[in-house]
Amino acid sequence: MQEGIHPEYPAARVKCACGNTFVTRSTRGDFQVDVCGACHPFYTGTQKLIDTAGRVDRFRKRYEKTAAVAASKGAKAAEAKAGAEPKVAETP
Question: Is the pTM of this model over 0.85?
């Protein structure tokens, strides 16, 4: 390797939201992660719902609004069909 062009690569401590900590090397120093190899569903084989800042709740609220709007539109369309008079062809 060429001297003087590579950044410092010291040991860094990584903290996971599950409480797991491990040491690796990084140019950015110590940092925190949301999911690690000890708690990631792919590696553990368990299903885990990760809700970051209420994203699931926001999605559910948005979906409930669109479902309610679609249901009200469907009810209005059915009501309009039931109230419509059948067209009769006129003879001259």
Answer: no
